Amino acid sequence: MSARTATRQRFLGQAVIITGASRGIGKAIALAFATEGADIVLNYGSNEEAARQAASEVEALGRRCVLVPGSVASPEVPDQLRGAALASFGRVDVLVNNAGISRDGHLMLLQPAAWRETMDVNLHGTLACCQAVIPAMKRQGHGIIINMSSSAGLRGRAGQVPYAATKGALIGLTQTLAAELGPHGIRVNCVAPGFVETDMVAGLMSRPGVREGFIQSTPIRRLGTVEDVANATLFLASPESAYVVGDVLRVNGGLVM
Amino acid sequence: MNHAETTTPFVQGLLHAHVALVTGAGQPVANAIARRLARAGARLALVSSPEHERETAALAKELGGALVMNCEASDAQAVGAVVRRTATELERIDLLVNADLSREPGALSDLPPEKWKALLGRHLSGAAWFCKEVIRPMMRQRSGRIINLVDATSGGTRRVAAEGLTAMTRALANELSRQGISVNTLAVHFLEAETRHLSPEQRKRLDGELGPLGRLGSAEEVAEAALFLASSAANLTTGQRLSATGGPA
After folding, report:
1. Domain limits for position B35
2. Does A157 touch chain B (CB under 8 A)?
3. Interface probe with B: pick from A77, A95, A107, A174, most Cβ of B within 10 Å
4. pLDDT value for B249
5. Does A163 participate in catalysis according to the annotation?
6. How much is the pTM?
7. Contact state of B171 with A110 under an 8 Å Cβ cutoff
8. How much is the CA Rg of chain A, to the nearest whole Å?
9. Which residues sit opposite A8 in a β-bridge?
10. Is B71 among the domain residues?
11. Which chain A residue's Cα is nearest to B124?
12. Distances B53 to B23, B43, B57 between C-alpha atoms, Å
């Protein structure tokens, strides 16, 4: 990962919760916030070693990091995330719902369990995390929620029906919550990345021709980096986007316009 | 005035011998679509949720007979059984219309998780199960149409299900285009007939949201849009979201 240079401290002293943040996009978002002064509640599913590594990288930036393990689909995890932010930092300024899974395959052959698993994490888990922090954000009179959609939520690909359905639904969730929470000073937006090189797509990318095909279908002729997505996420959390509400920020090199 | 009756350009017998499976039977939009498809010559299988059984039986009688079934759409097994029965008794499935719409109110910020899961289980997952089950019979025929209705009114889980179904439709259209199966979304808004139950204040707010046409539509007008997507007029149309809302997205 390329070294970040902190030119600004837009989130100094703020508390940021990021789900699914031991690796990939989530980790890059955690490090980007920490670089600009935020303390981090870092959730991870099961990879404890990676999570500890991410935490030590946050701490090396001079910020605090609290680890909360477990799937966001588990009933207790969303409350633990809020509890960790309030107990350790006394506030919760930003929630980034990044945790997500993909169970690809053609719909005709899809097992109902795979659909439910995708719904549980991508959709139900996201709403549960939102609901966990909303009362605290309302009390503060401010808050930022950023959901991680996908270009699949805008134009789904074959073999990705459950993923597309949940990522599209997240756009509806974002817009609905944005309308409900705007009057309370809480802004809700989402980011829709295109092809980004992460562990989630490593298997797919290793198939012959796939990586090159993705690059060729992206007008800017490269895959996205996790930092590209982190930069967009920080913009949506910053005062620079103060009038951006219920929006879908596409970070996809022109893949879906 | 019924705008649809006076202007429809579609010929009789357009869907002659087609078999259409319509969900959400017993609700105004699904009923209007079923009537319109029947008038175009289609044979119908009507699926209702248990609370709409009576209205669905009445509709079937009015249509002079239809295969009537009821099931909880969130139950993948039950949906599979309903679709298999349709394919067996009516021998094919040309068209699936997922028309089970939600009008449940309530804010998402504090919606109880069990309520949220039940609504999405029915309106998003339920629609997916019906799509999944009709693929096999449609693949055998090398043709088929799927129309997923979405509720374009805001609030509650409606927009969540609507955007989810819209994205699912696009993905599925990509998945099935080579099999001769097209998949589209049809967006509907409040119907004029539904506004009778609104308070003057709610009505005023709704009027403020009206699109360019400046009026709400009828179920019959929505049914004409569904007929377009079901007909050969839409041969080149797949993965699209057609809005029969008078303007609002």
Report:
1. 14-243
2. yes
3. A107
4. 56
5. yes
6. 0.94
7. no
8. 17
9. none
10. yes
11. A165
12. 12, 19, 6
pLDDT digits (tens, 9 = 90+) for A3-41: 556 678 999 999 999 999 999 999 999 999 999 999 999
Q: Is residue B4 part of a domain?
A: no
> What residues pair up with B68 in beta bridges, in sequence order?
B46
Tell me the CA end-to-end span of chain A in Å, nearest whole number.
Answer: 28
Contact yes or no for B189/B246 (Cβ under 8 A) = yes
Please indicate, yes or no, if residue B7 is contained in any of the structural domains.
no
- Is A115 an interface residue toward B (CB < 8 Å)? yes
10-residue stretch averages of pLDDT, chain A, 257 residues long: 67 98 97 98 97 98 98 98 98 98 94 96 98 98 98 93 98 97 98 92 86 94 97 98 98 95
Task: Give dist(CA B19, CA B186) in Å, integer.
Answer: 19
B107-137 pLDDT tens trace: 999 999 999 999 999 999 999 999 999 999 9
Q: How many domains are there within chain B?
A: 1
Sign of CA dihedral B237, B243, B247, B249: negative
Positive/negative CA dihedral, A152, A156, A158, A161 = positive
Q: Cβ–Cβ of A124/B167 closer than 8 Å? A: no
A173 and B155 within 8 Å at the Cβ level: the answer is no
Q: How far is B116 from chain A (nearest CA, A)?
A: 8
Distance CA A119, CA B157 (A): 14
Structural domains of chain A ordered from first start = 15-199+226-251 (3.40.50.720)
- Kind and range of the H or E run holding A13: none
Q: Which residue of A has its CA nearest to B156?
A: A176
Please check whether residue A134 touches B, CB under 8 A. Answer: yes
3-class SS shares of chain A: helix, strand, coil, % to 5: 50, 15, 35
Of A33, A163, A195, A214, catalytic: A163
Looking at the complex, report in whole angstroms how far the Cα of residue B65 sits from the nearest Cα belonging to chain A.
30
